[in-house]
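COURSE: Structural Biology Practicum
ASSIGNMENT: Worksheet 4, Part C
STUDENT ID: 0417
INSTRUCTIONS: Below are two proteins. For each, the amino acid sequence is given first, followed by its structure token string. Answer the questions at the end about the second protein only.

PROTEIN I
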Amino acid sequence: MAIPSIITTGFIKTLSGLGNNSDSIVPMAVKDIISDCTLIHTYKKEGDKDDVREKTIEEFGTGALWLFGIPIIKKIIDKTIYPALSLNPDLDPRILNNKNGRFDFLKSVAKDGEKKVFDSLSQKTKLFNKFELPFSNYKAYKGVYAFKFLISTVSCAFALTKLIKYKQKTTDERIKKDLAKNKDNSRYVQSFANKENLYSAFLDKTKKKNISFGNAIALKTGDFMKDFVFNPVKNTSILDACIAGTRLKESRKGEKLEVLLKELFQIMFIYVIAKPIQKAFEAMGRALKLPIELDPNVIFDANIKDKLNASKKDIETLMNSKNLLKSIYELESSSSLVELLSKNGVLPVIKDKNGIQAISTFKEIDENAVKKALKNLEDLSGAISSIKKIKAFKAFAVVGNVALAICAMGVLQPKITIWMRKKLNNGDNRNPAIVQREKEMGKVNS
């Protein structure tokens, strides 16, 4: 592959990852990592050394656990517990629900497919032979999947609480070392005791308020499995709730308002408004007759015009189908529409080492998502003459969404925090909680 082609492919895949605010942690990771770097730079420039040290430990440490802890633990379970129980980690437990004969249909598709496109996947399709109503392995799959979700989430949450406490411990150790090096520090610290700390007084007013981010996650009993177990973004949001709750609980006197502000910015720009901002850009695109709802992998496809033309008949068939799932599996696996739907992330496919492709019967297919993608493909086909403008606006929308979050979390939030310190604490830009800790430890050592 030529270098320009590699660069183009990398750009498209990066844009695709950044633009998925529904079920991908990629935009979350990019926003978090870059905003953390920016935040630390802002504190280094306008705050003090304690801010830089504490934020470096806390932001990068919690960030690593937050983004990579759950996927790594789940992968370990896939490679150990699943094989030990003769279970296949590729199988989505949701397909075992036989509502409206769905599972029976998938079994028949897999068996028929073995003679056609599923030849290369025979080992996987044999797994279906283990299932006969009432699904002898159904409980095992559901149980192991639930265990994987719980153990990965709980263990990461526990590690995060320990890391936040470790950050504060390092600050206490730094204060002790400074006091030991210079006995005059006790007098220096004591001088702060006579200063009216307006900032701490202001924060004390909110001390008795019970602030909980746990309530920010709306858990509907019937939708819990779907919304949190199967969606990596929502799964990670549980960790964020734990982080926010722990930070508020463990925050020192004088910094609760700062912690609250920081967590509000994080939750707002990572979860709450990321998708609405994306929808706003898409609405702007529709107003300009530049449909950008589809994944960049589709929009930036080099042969998108030809593939859309080749897909017109299949799109019409699926949109008029009374049994969409059945019609999807009747598509030729090598068709342009299968490729486009797969690139858009709504149709799971699997390939063998020879490149033979088949629609996966092991994964859940969201029929509503497929219908929406079909409509978007129709819209794109109608505006294909403006494909260059569509590509440009799509790139602008994705980058704009990410940049807005980075600026808000990495620049605006710390600037507001430092402004509050100066405004409420007699012009001092230091963390009032650390100043208070120095007072307390200075008194002890005086």
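PROTEIN II
(use this one for the questions)
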Amino acid sequence: MKFNLKNIAVLTLVYCLSAMCSYATKLPPYILQTIKKDLPEASIRFDGLITLPDGTIYLPVLPSNPKKNPTGKVVTTYPANQKLSQLPEVVVFDSNLALLKVIKNNKGQITVTDTKNIPFVVKTGLFPQDMLVPPGLIIPDDMKIMMGDLVINVADSRINDILKETALVNKTDAKNDVKITPVAAMQDKTLLVTTLDSKTVNVIPSNSAVPQYTLRLENLPKFVQPAGDGRYVLVATAGKTYIEIADIEQEVIAKKIDLSYQPAEIILTKDKKKAYISVLDDQAIFVIDLKNMALLEKIKVKGYPKNIALSDDESAIVYSDRNNGDIYTLALDESYLNRYVFNASNISKLALRGNNVYLLSRTQNELQVVDNELQDLIYSQPLANKPVDMFLIKDKLYILCASNEIDVFNLKDFSMTAQVKLPGGGFSKKLVRVPNSNILLITNVLNKNYHVFDMDKNTVIQTVPANVTISDMELLNRKVK
């Protein structure tokens, strides 16, 4: 067998660069400071990809020979002598880290500038190895060493289909669309709606009754959870062991996080920096860093978690065992103390504040209050039929019952302060808080509408028609294209 010394040298360089840089998906602070100063509207994805509101994309190239004591100063550009704010095609910083602008060639293909315009020090660098580059990107042959193990997806691969339009609004739906005047809190928001029997997500603007388009999934969704102020959506589907991180701006799946078990439920911290995920077939809760979109750890717990919920101070998680109804708390400090609290049947929702666990019992149609220390029931409150969801804010629990009623429970004196009948029939299912507002959205699994509920006035202030039956709904805190 003949060996080509040039190829061996290339492979050796790729190996060394990969070993050195594969972990370095975060851009250095001094680079981030320069970008923030010169391109204040730039968005930097967790894998290093840089995007601007006008659609401009920059690919970072990590240096093989980084210079010492860098400041983040731009030392070379193409075209020459341009500022970063002028969006040059090549940017080289004083550390030898570089940015390559994604452009289109005369055939309409996406690529980078001609290789003759790129300094040699950049060509010896390496793209972040977990970065998702724009699908169909063309890299010149003499620059492919920079790819390392990075794979460029073709433009029509399935990984890019998940956020592509599968069905625009048809003419009949468009003709019958009812224009909505959203309440102030719902201006420029987007609904992500799933149905019971469809592998799609309906993307519905808050000022419309019909989907703007639908998004394809691999299977029936387990959850579709917005994160990162609406730039990302975490998607889990039935039968799959991984979570897909969809980048809304780039309309691609930017990453997959494999848990080795089927994800079941997800909860996010208030600052959206962490997600806690339960799975169907393991006694564990997984923790994901939402800033870097990386799996932080796997916490072994008692039982198989269901109905997971964060305490209002986010110091603990409460959950029930899907097999026997045992309720546990899990301290979110270094101890990860996992304590049994109580046993209850047919729990639909849990909440935790201080020493008290609040649970909804569907079989007994009541709110039960359990003392965490005493491990015993200390209070029960009759509710309307089939309590299914609740939302804790300040000193009140807003409890949604499937029999189309919201019961408002005061945590200070354990009193019922309001029982609000919802208009229309059907089967109420879920409460969705509109961020930074006094508004709850109320879904109905049988009727094609949702209610807008004012928590200050304890009343429905708007009923919004929808063109689809809502099984589950999440709110995207932005408009979509």
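ANSWER KEY EXCERPT:
Q1: The longest strand covers residues 221-227.
Q2: Residues 5-155 form one domain.
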